[in-house]
Records
---
Amino acid sequence: MRKKNEEIFQAIRAYVNYYYMKTGHGPSTRDIEAGTGIQRITVQRYLQAMKESGEIEYGGRRGTKNAFAKTIVACVMVPCYGKVKCGAPNDPFVDVTETVRLPRSWVGEGEFYILEADGASMKDIGIDPGDLIVIRRQDTAKPGEVVVAMVDGETTLKRFLPEEGRIVLHPENRDFADIVVEGERMAHFAVQGVAVRIIKAVR
């Protein structure tokens, strides 16, 4: 009997998690019945037991949340746009390759996207080819921040060093030269975001 009870608990937990991941809110008892095949009166009894144990929040018709579901609220969905050159600029990213969920505590507030590092110009600050760079989407940056910048219609990842009358995009690798943007090229320059976190590739 204990094994049977635990199987029902596990089925309900799994469905609540699945439903919350899919819809962003907890399922009703009717939803759980339809999704698991467990009779609604049994679902209600088990949800009440889970509520009393502190495992879930359960408000009857208002649906349910469990501890796992609560953490989803504190996450953000971030699109991945492919590669960005850590070297010479490359063609702009355009296609979303996938979307990943990141804890809001990792990135803070704002709108974000992810690019994969390609090249070695930022290796001295620990950005290697294949690493994922989480970028906060914005069109301004503070001096010294690592930015994704558009230069002459192409993108690159560099340290942003504005000077009077020009902008220096500095690589963190002594084997690479600065990219200096000045004169007419200033009209074709734009900051597209600021790096906020590096997710290291497994090697």
---
Amino acid sequence: MRLLLQVALLCLLLLSFNARAVIETYEFSDPELEQRYRQLSTELRCPKCQNQNIADSNAPISQDLRKLLHQQLEAGADDDEILDYMVSRYGEFVRYRPRFSGATAILWLAPLLLLLVGIAAAVLTLRSRRSQRQAAGPLSRDDEQRLQDLLGKTEKDS
């Protein structure tokens, strides 16, 4: 009975997460504008939350940005104009996919540079191991005898 109560309580708790979802409706004059609104609102980052887009954020600034986005779409602004306005006001950070520029070059090139550094490190490590094995050469008679003694001692111990 106690387990059943715990499971029911957990289910109610999980269902309550939807209550925190953003519920805002805007009337659009064209279904295409609504589609553009949804696409742009998922592409713009909430300046306060930083890890959520404005479509999912409950922050007051996200509400303002969604309202502004709706107004600009209805006024006839295209996507680039809207994004340029948001960037001029909040900086390139407001975009999840910032444009390639001198300031954002490190964001775009860092994964490629890290991959190249990793490949170079792996190649150098493998080459150094190969050269160490080749430099060692064949064992001398004394080394072979010592190795055989050690191997024999190991076999006797087991």
---
Amino acid sequence: MKLKIKKIHPEAKLPEYANSGDAGMDLFALEKVIVKPGEIKRIRSGIAMELPEGYVGLCWDKSGMSINHGMKVLAGVIDSGYRGEIIMGVVNLSKESYAFEKGHKVMQMLIQPIEIMEIVEADELSNSQRGEGGFGSTGK
């Protein structure tokens, strides 16, 4: 399967898989962005893409950046009909500023098939073992 990528900015770096068999492709910063502690920033990629109908791009943290630097990816769904620039939202959960340099990895995107459900209103839902239990109901 092929993924069409359009460079919106001539210096943009195309997404790439770091290793054979990786689930996520890396997306890169178009320009330097400093994210202060507790700050939310938008980071331009300089690219747009054409995801095939029936697929979605799911955006995830890079494990090293999240564990080592407290950087968390936000707004993680790219729909197949979207043709604008991929803007990567991040929040700095650490106590130190973090600098994304131009060309550095910001996030990874997994492209997966989706199912479109028919929405049906119901007066009742079937019983399940879990029921309405949530938010820690299964214990530690």
---
Amino acid sequence: MIDQIKIGKFIAEKRKEKQLTQMEIANMLNITDRAVSKWERGLSLPDSGIMLQLCTILGITVNELLTGSEIYADNDKETAANIIVEMKKKEEEANRYLLHLEWIICIISLISFLIILFTASYLVAGINTILAAVLTVFAFGIFAFGIYHALKIERNAGYYECKCCHYRYIPNIGAVIAAPHVGRTRYMKCPSCGERSWQKKVLSK
């Protein structure tokens, strides 16, 4: 298991060994000192985009950072493999949560759409046609807003796998919206082999 508290203490320990302040680390990474403070308190982990740079500054390896301790050569490979497995599990859990959230957004959007449309059609139309028209436009706007954000979540949660070459990638939002689909399986062009196929959603790379 990745222990954020242990990692945070290790970051703080290595930072102090280098005689650096949280602000100095933050300036080197172009982030805020609050972010560094959160790492050291175990509230969050460094983003993957700055992890290598942070390791260089602290004089440690990525494996050491993610285990929160120094690693020696004889167990380095085993530790690295365990870290990769753990990170893959965490990625899958996070993506599974996002895909559940997508369904919740879709359901809420649909219910809101139907309630507002029903109100516009049956309760308001006979009294005020302008208000009915406004409510109808608002209902479609709510529905479109919800579906768009649900599709963004689906796009960002995991990857699509090409049926032809098995390349896994994240397409742009336009391709996701335009693609014919059955559930979360979409007919799209693979950026690796260039072939079009029905591509399934997978949770990790």
